[in-house]
Amino acid sequence: MEFVVLGVVLAVFLVGAFVAFLKAPTRRELPPGTEPAPAVEPPTVVEAPAAEAPIVEAPIVEAPIAEAPVAEVPVAEVPVAEEALDVPPPSAGRLVRLRARLARSQGSLGRSLLTLLARDTIDDDTWDEVEEILLTADVGVAATRQIVDNLRTQVMVLGARTPEQVRTLLRDQLLVAVGSDLDRRLQTLPQDGRPAVILVVGVNGTGKTTTCGKLGRALVGDGRSVVLGAADTFRAAAADQLATWGSRVGAEVVRGPEGADPASIAFDAVRIGAERKVDTVLIDTAGRLHTKQGLMDELGKVKRVVERQGSVDEVLLVLDATTGQNGLVQARVFAEVVDVTGIVLTKLDGTAKGGIVIAVQRELGVPVKLVGLGEGPDDLAPFEPEAFVDALLGDPAEAAA
Ligand SMILES: Nc1nc2c(ncn2[C@@H]2O[C@H](COP(=O)(O)OP(=O)(O)OP(=O)(O)O)[C@@H](O)[C@H]2O)c(=O)[nH]1
Ligand SMILES: [Mg+2]
Questions:
Q1: What is the spatial distance between Cα 169 and Cα 165, in angstroms, rounded to a whole number?
Q2: Which of 21, 59, 66, 320 to pair with 144, CA 20 to 30 A apart?
Q3: 62 touches ligand 1 (CB under 6 Å)
Q4: Which residue lies with its CA nearest to atom 30 of ligand 1?
Q5: Position in ligand 1 atom list of the atom nearest CA 206
Q6: pLDDT digit string (tens) for 108-158?
Q7: pTM of the entire structure?
């Protein structure tokens, strides 16, 4: 009996052990089965957004033109109380007022030429000297040749010369070279109920912002209303600089945050100018090297975007007179991109090379419309050929003395 019980217990144990053996392999397969899941999922999650991001960003460039600035327009910077505003003088006759400054910088050119041409006998060496003086003053090769050829013929015809005759000869030739018949009017009056739009462009540091400020001021002095557009969004300081100019004469400044799309700021400035029914909208742009294709494309875009509301009436290229022939290369590239309508020649007070006036006009076929003659707020003048040439030649009374 005991054997039977023992046998049963043994049998039960054996059956249990057999069952346990059969189940064991199934359990061992489970852990490996869990591994593939985490290995597959992470890459799927990471890659999805990476592929989409750039696709979303690309079209944004054009979109904000109409919308983003509306939210941004921190505009209405008309901060100063009326009685605290400057009352700028009218712009008429400015160049005559600034003539002394021009004569100081350019006078040596005229004096040297007058002295040479007053000699009893003028030989080839004298003409070489005349040519050298003109070239040194940045008049340019073609214009120098033309001036010298004409003078040579006239001196030959004239024979003996008085100082007055020499002065008249030279004055006439310089006037021809400077172009006394070019249309230098600046389009600053509204047309068909919309403000005149002036875009100010140029390479870094030529005096664009200063010119916008001075011109805005001169217009206010002439009784016009002005909105300034700070489309130089490259540095926040640029908009501050323009805002300072605006606040002094009560002109509203449209600006956006640093890094904003310059085209959208320019667009908004024109829109706001039209809403306010001002006479002129002046748009300052960031300085850019003419060799940087991307920045030049951006400038082209600024103009095109503004043109969605109507024409841009003036594109003023600001050139630093002290940069000489380099300025001509810049001028050529800017003219291709934005169709320049006028030159502003700044820092003419700081150089004796006033001949660049002649060279740049010949190069571009575009007139010099304004000249900068100092850092003071009213040191910008409409360019007048007669006053310019007279400043070069100095006062005849002084010359005779
Ligand atoms: N002497 C003299 N200095 C000038 C004249 N016009 C501008 N400047 C000076 O030139 C410097 C640069 O002027 P900005 O108006 O800031 O030049 P910008 O072209 O706006 O410069 P970016 O915006 O940096 O490209 C300033 O110190 C001005 O005062 C001028 O006619 N004569
Ligand atoms: Mg500037």
A1: 6
A2: 320
A3: no
A4: 347
A5: 19
A6: 888 899 999 888 888 999 999 999 999 999 999 999 999 999 999 998 888
A7: 0.79
